User: What shape does this take?
Amino acid sequence: MISYTQFHRRLNSHSIPLFNKQTGDIATGLLLDIHVAKLVLTVAHIFEGADPADLLVSLGISSQSYTMKKEKVWQDLALDLAYIQLNPFETTIFQGDGVKFFQPHKGTPLNAPHKPFRCAICGFPSKMASYKKSDNIIEASTCLVTSPPPLPYEQWPPGIEATPENPNGKNPKVNFLLKHGPKQSTFTLNEHQAPTSPVDPRGLSGAGIWIFNPESENDDAPEYSLFGIQTSFYHTHDLLVSTAVEPLMKQIEQDYRVSFSN
Assistant: This one.
């Protein structure tokens, strides 16, 4: 049996739960350290129906009830992507021991043309999370989902691609699809690394999509790289919809005058 313990722990250290106190929606945030700022990458739709101040961000301290400041919020509604700039002092105070900001320039890249790879999502499903209003605390458990590489564009089901007749469809230049459901070959582990059936993906929105080498996932330094952000789900097709991370990273490079190139 393959053990995902080390790999799950690595991805989980970069992931946090988010809670919209106005709508009751849960999402996942991906922690990013760009040296000049500490950011949370997530989905734009988690801000729907609420002011950014109503979004509760938890950095891993179980008793955290303080609503952290958002020094900046950037959103792209078309891509359904967003980032939050955290206050650096608050980040130092509230960052839990098991939480680690991902540094994109230090990622372990895959030599994709020459190595097999799978995709992984680590996030906080809504069914495994709750909000204690009296204490203003999020309690959430994490899961790891792995899947085959993205579905080739030629295999996209009819009606998903954006067209003049379907303007709300997906753009194959920036979106990709992952199999997820009872008929698909996916693996789900809870926080105790116990296998479960595929979880309801609500709450996984905002989680990082990582590509990794399954041959090294149990190594101390597994090969993995950030590939995209989970954004939505087609229940009728058991397909997760994700957005490539490149447009978001380019926006961050522009906004903060940094470079993620090696």
Observations:
- Residues 55 and 247 are 24 Å apart (CA to CA).
